[in-house]
Structures are given as C-alpha cells and as structure tokens.
Amino acid sequence: xxxxxxxxxxAELPGFDRKLKRQTLRSIFWTMGQAAGDQVFSFFVFVMLxxxxxxxxxxTFAIAFVFMDVGRNIATAGVSQAVARAKSLSERELxxxxxxxxxxxSAYALGIIAFAPTAERLFDAPQLSAVLMWLAIxxxxxxxxxxxxxxxxxxxxxxxxxxxxxxxxxxxxxxAVVAALLGAGxxxxxxxxxxxxxxxTATAWSSYRWRxxxxxxxxxxxxxxxxxxxxxxxxxxxxxxxxxxxLGIGRVLGAATLSSYRVAWRCAELIGPQIVGxxxxxxxxxxSRLQDHREDLRKAYxxxxxxxxxxxxxxxxxxxIAGPWLVPALFGPQWHDAGMIAPMLLPxxxxxxxxxxxxxxxxxxxxxxxxxxxxxxxxxxxxxxTALTVPYGLQWxxxxxxxxxxxxxxxxxxxxxxxxxxxxxxxxxxxxKPVLAATAMGTAAxxxxxxxxxxxxxxxxxxCGAAAAVYAALVATILPQYRKRALELARI
Length: 492
Hints:
Elements: H1 4-7, H2 18-52, H3 55-76, H4 79-85, H5 91-123, H6 128-134, H7 136-154, H8 158-181, H9 187-207, H10 218-252, H11 255-271, H12 273-289, H13 294-331, H14 336-339, H15 349-364, H16 368-389, H17 394-407, H18 409-420, H19 424-452, H20 457-478, H21 481-490
C-alpha cells in the first residue's frame, strides 16, 4: 500500500527541539552503525581480495569504478535532497522523480557501453572495456532504488539504511571472495558490485512500500531536472575531485601503480568519508527541517560538527601515523609503497570533516549553484595538482592533494557564513577541543611507533589501542558531556 500520506503531512517542527534532537541522535547512531558494520566488513573483503588478486586487476577495476560511480550519482540526480527538502510530495511528483531517475540511469549505462572500447585504449588496460559494460548494470539498479530509499530517509529511517547496506555488503563480499578463490580475477570485483546493487535495490523496495505508477508529468520532470541535475552534477564533480587522481595516475603511471594509491586511499576512505558521510546524510535531514530557524540551525550545526570531529579527526591522524606499518601488515609486503602514502594524508583531517557539513548545509538551503561552483573549483585544483605532481610519484600526488584541500578551507568557511551566519568562532568552539585531543594522541602514537617499530599486526593493534585510550581519556576530561551522550546512545 502507498505510504505517500505519511510524507505529505509532515508536522512543522518549531526548531531543534527535543524530538528532533533525539531523531538526529538516533539517526547518527544507526548511520554510524551502518558505516561501521558495512565498511569494516567491506574493508575485510578488500584486504582478502588485495591478497588474492594481482595489482593490474585492482588498478583496472579502480579505473572502471570511477565511471560507474559517476553514473550512480547522475542516476540519483539529487533525489535524496529533493525529497528531503520538499514540504510535501504528491503521487504525480513521486512517479515523475522515479521514472526520471530510471531514464537518466539507463541513458548513462548506454553511454558507458558505447565508451568502453575507447576507455580501454586510452588507459591501455586490458579487460577494461568488458568490465565497464558489466558495470552498467549497477548504474541502472541504483536509479531504480534510490527514490524508495530517499523516502525512507525522509522519515529518519536510517536504521533501514544500516540493515540494507550491511546485508548488501555481506552478500556481495562473500560472492567476491568465493569467485576470487576460484580464480575469477578481476571478475570477482565486478560480481561484488552487481550483487551488492541488486540487494540494495531489493531491500529499498521492501523497506518502503510505495510502488511507482505512470502519472508522469513532463513539466514537473523538467523542473526536477533543473534542480536535480544541478545537484547531481555537483555530486559528480565532488566525486571526481576525489577520483580524478585515479584517472591521472592510471593514464600516466599505469593500472598496477594506481592499485597502490587505491589501497592507501581505501584505508583513508574507511576513516574519512565513511565517518563524515553518515553525519552528512543525517545533517541534510536535520538542516532541511531547520532551514527557517537560524539560531536552531546554528546550534545543530555546531553540535553535529563537534560530534563528527571527535571521531573523524583522531581516526585520520591515527592512520597517518600508523599507516607505514599497518598497510603492509594487513595487505602483505607487496603493498609497502601504499603504506608510505598514509602520512601524506594527515593534512586532510579537518578538510574531510568540514567539507561534508558544508555540502549538507548548502543542499539544505537550496544553494545548489554554490555547491556546484565550489565542486568545480575543487575538481580544477585537483586536476592541476595531480598534473603537476604525478611525474614525481604517488607520495607527491597525495601530499599535493592534501595541501590543496587545506588551502580551500577559508572559502568553505566563507560559504557557510554566507548561507547560515555560522562564523569562524562557531567552528573554533566546535573543533578546538577535538583537535587538541587528537594532536596529543597523534604525538603519543608517533613516539610509540618510532621507538617500538612494530613488525606484527598484533603489536600494531596494541599500540593503536594505547593511543586510542589516551584520546578517550583526554576527551572524557575536556568534554565530560560526551559521557552522558554515550549513555544516551546506549539507550537507543
């Protein structure tokens, strides 16, 4: 039965009241739970596949994955943001959004298939053409499932998202490992993505019982596309600002060299976007409801930013310190060069955190053009820095990318202030104590790793645990309110 009646009568919330605070806290908990369960298992699968597959296979798939991920972002075309921001949604509007996304996904999938042979020649990567053709399937599936998940998230249904993501990661990961053990090579990675998207789409449809009809409105579709494509392109450009490095390295240095860079970044992505991302997902819903309540929006922003920084900043600092020992211990000695990239990512600790909140705030306020223009600047600087540094090796590419992100932070702060009145002082209040605690933890970790020089994974884990204990003690001392917050989460 349709659930549209539930989404056309959203009560107006007066501000960041007790109910919305609890919804936000619960959603953060479940979204972080999704990130923890999904990403930890996904990372474990990636470690196994990195040990089973050769470097060219991983590098070739990394190139193909960029094209697939661009398609998935185009297929959604800002649907989550459009659904979140709408005061109400009629059947005709929902049908139009759904079929528009399916059409966009199908059109892009055909484009991938047509471009595949050219891409294989351009990157001189055998099997890339066939891999790209198969990865058109997840693009179409994503377009067919995203409307349902956006409707579920509108109701703060992040618990459903957590189950969906963990289940898809589990089934896809098992299929990939079994295929790799049977000698499937790069096709194990392709199978993982196809199976994962099938499960994601099936669970999205089962979690929200709305079924699309055929009440398509061309005028509504054009209006949606004007806004959705703007946001979709901004998302694509933001994605490419991360992954343009992959294409540049793959084109200049080859797929095998790219695999080392991807392994280093896969560890960072487990920490950075996969921690900040869940907060950004919840922030979009919360900020959208508070978009007309300036002071409540400021309070929610500062509170959520500090909570996120308490996790993301120390995690990336810890990876930068431990990476040279941790990466080869996890993936094998053949990945030692990937571990040496980790320290170059240390400057990203704050930009990673700030970027996710800026994007959520701009989307909630409807400033799609600002988001797109910043994303274009982000992409342009990434391409420039990659072109300048790639001849000197992977470490220089990583360091250049990180420093570029730091230099863009003043512009991010300015855009946040322009759209919401949230100023530098608010950011200082939110970030000072997490940064101080993470700095102390990083110093302790650096000394431990330098003097112990661990060779085993167990010893590395013990040293990381000791550094984490130092950090937890510092946070409990300088931010005692989070002891109460931890107890609240435990009761959810």
